[in-house]
Amino acid sequence: xxQVTQSPEALRLQEGxxxxxxxxxxxxxxxxxxxxxxxxxxxxxxxxxxxxxxxEKEKERLKATLTKKESFLHITAPKPxxxxxYLCAVTSHKAAGNKLTFxxxxxxxxxx
Amino acid sequence: GAVVSQHPSWVICKxxxxxxxxxxxxxxxxxxxxWYRQFPKQSLMLMATSNEGSKATYExxxxxxxxxxxxxxxxxxxxxxxSAHPEDSSFYICSAPGQxxxxxxxxxxxxxTVL
Lengths: 112, 115
Fold this sequence. Notes:
The complex is a heterodimer. Chain A is an all-beta fold. Chain A is 0% helix and 58% strand. Chain B is mostly beta strands. Chain B has no helices and eleven strands.
């Protein structure tokens, strides 16, 4: 069974204080690892897809990296508008269709 | 990215009534859509996979007779919560794979409150 664990559960940062979120996964044949941002009362917003170890992707202040066991989402010099819950999910080659398995999420609060 | 819409965005109903939630892919076709449920401060839990032209596939522990799914066309899936009870109150979110990609795109969610 695919499993995804995110840490920490919550993160409080000062504006400009860089940090990293962790996503550890166990999956039979990784097809893709996904990062989403979710604001309160809204659906998840797609950020990145990573497919193979060593892959990196960047978008503004966010950078996602992938190894064979985990992924990191690095937030560089965060701003208050980066406050959100960040969700990590995986899909495997064995999963039917594009079925996603989600981690518990990391709630990030960036204080000005 | 691909756009997925949901309607309504929120609904309040009385216990025992049924509620229908629509999920539409606006600029692409989706033979498969997914329905999730999310409780406060928790992550998304997959309820079922909606398949166009065939029966939905339900996750273990999800009552198929209570949560009726109909994938009416390549751009529309509906979730009907039948005989709703207060414990069904939750945030329901649908998603669909973008065309030609593994990435799923999510709708804005529907907040259901059962009184």
